[in-house]
Amino acid sequence: MMKRAHCDQCKRPAGSCYCHLLQQHDNDCPVIILQDAREAKHPLGTARIAKLGLRKCDLFVLENCDRSDPVAQAIIDRILSCNPILVYPGGDNMKSAYSQTKKPQPLLFIDATWRRSRKMLFEFPQLASLPRFALCDTPASRYRIRSAREEGALATLEAIVYSLQAIEHHAKDYLQLLAIMDWMISDQVSRMGESVFARNYRH
């Protein structure tokens, strides 16, 4: 069977490529994404939209979540050398806490399920010990093609967009990135059909 053609940039099937919607945004605050290898293979992952849509965005894929793996440890060490702030539940309010920093520190986001992200923090305690900021009072998630939702859960792209909006002083239309996510999800829903979507995702 012939494999479907995929876009080299967004990695989506050619018929569902969203690259025509991409615009690059000049974010002042650098963004770092630590992505679980399973999420890297997810057909509807949102981290890649951030990588393609933000000029200051680095994405690292963690193939093996094991502190004894030298490749994994090298990735963690490289991230730590940037002196990032971890955006994760349980930290100080981002908007008020970040305003006290002297210069823009990179924001680190973990792109993984809650269970896998907790494993990363356990395996690499250097990550867990980073300064931690939490998002508060965010809108409900627009990532509607999810079978199970933790209360307050956001897609990685949503967390990035709302974080940048909270701390950057001048207006930037980062919501345009969320519009790409909306398009990607709507395209997927149209391909599966409304009845399948309603049966599996609409509660």
Beta content: 5-15%
Low-confidence stretches: none
Largest pleated sheet: 5 strands, parallel
Radius of gyration: 17 Å
Into which percent range does the helicity of residues fall? 25-40%
Q: Based on CA inertia axes, which overall geometry fits?
A: globular
The chain-level structural class is alpha/beta
Strand line-up in the sheet with most strands = 2-1-4-3-5
Number of helices: 9
Tally of strands: 5
Average of the residue pLDDT scores: 86
Gap from first CA to last CA: 36 Å
Compressed to H and E, one letter per element, the order equals EHHEHEHEHHEHHH
Quick recap:
This protein has helices at 37-40, 47-53, 70-80, 94-98, 114-123, 125-128, 156-167, 175-192, 194-200; strands at 31-36, 57-62, 85-93, 107-111, 132-134.
Please write out the topology:
Blueprint: E1 31-36, H1 37-40, H2 47-53, E2 57-62, H3 70-80, E3 85-93, H4 94-98, E4 107-111, H5 114-123, H6 125-128, E5 132-134, H7 156-167, H8 175-192, H9 194-200
